[in-house]
Design brief:
The protein is of the alpha+beta class and about 250 residues long. The longest helix has 12 residues. It contains five helices and 16 strands. Strands 2-3-4-1-5-8-7-6 form an eight-stranded mixed β-sheet, covered by helices on one side.
Length: about 250
């Protein structure tokens, strides 16, 4: 079993999804596909080059957030493996399945349709990471679950509360596991790698985003639909932190 492609899903409340679609197509340099689903809740962000790796969903309840779709050759085998590792099935559809991780984070298993080429960096940034926000009591078990499910390389993060799962070359979205300071349900948000956080932040603010917090090498914003996401000071091509950030984290 291998993961052949990944999609990061932007989940936003249905009554705010139009604003979210306009914002995320603008910041990623994409165009919106035709809407899909019984209520037109699904859409793909189509890049100018390469294969799509970001999709959107209007959700009817809750604030939304983010989740991952794993594209695989054999959905049934992937689901069987996920369940053996502790995932809980949520819904079965024709050809694809929705599950929850042991800590409660939703994800999907979908068929691979031949995607293989990452979209380009746009205006110095790339949406390339889904950050899973995990309560302290569940962090170690949840980290082990995602590492075993994906088979991706685990790496220490820049701070003790972060772990990275780096996919094989060519896959467009990696996973960051963040240990929270408080006990609360699992959630997820999107991260963009930015060559220049300040320049990217200014562009996003012009498009309607709002800064809510700043960290050592990241900035937290809310998009026009109220969804949280981060701009991170990482190389948009490789996803890695610059040496200065790594040295600072160790000092």
């Amino acid at each position: 079993m291998s993961i052949r492609w990944t999609h990061a899903f932007v989940d936003r409340p249905s009554d705010r999804i139009a604003a979210a679609r306009a914002f995320w197509t603008a910041v990623t340099g994409t165009r919106l596909s035709e809407l899909r689903g019984a209520r037109g809740e699904f859409a793909t962000l189509l890049p100018t080059d390469g294969d799509a790796c970001v999709k959107m969903q209007g959700v009817g309840a809750g604030p939304g957030g983010a989740h991952l779709d794993f594209s695989v050759d054999d959905v049934e085998a992937f689901v069987t493996t996920a369940r053996a590792l502790g995932a809980v099935p949520v819904a079965e559809h024709e050809g694809w399945s929705v599950l929850r991780s042991p800590a409660g984070q939703p994800f999907c298993a979908v068929p691979w349709h031949g995607e293989s080429v990452r979209p380009p960096v746009v205006a110095g940034s790339r949406l390339d990471q889904v950050c899973l926000d995990i309560a302290p009591s569940a962090y170690d078990a949840e980290s082990a679950f995602w590492a075993e499910l994906t088979g991706w390389q685990p790496l220490a993060g820049s701070l003790p509360e972060f772990r990275v799962l780096r996919p094989p070359p060519g896959l467009p979205v990696r996973i960051l596991l963040q240990r929270l300071d408080e006990e609360r349900p699992a959630a997820a948000h999107l991260d963009l790698a930015c060559a220049d956080i300040a320049a990217t932040r200014a562009r996003h603010e012009d498009l309607g985003a709002r800064v809510v917090a700043r960290g050592p090498h990241w900035t937290v914003l809310h998009d026009p639909a109220g969804g949280a996401y981060c701009l991170t000071g990482r190389d948009p091509e490789t996803g890695g932190l610059p040496a200065s950030a790594l040295n600072g984290a160790r000092s």
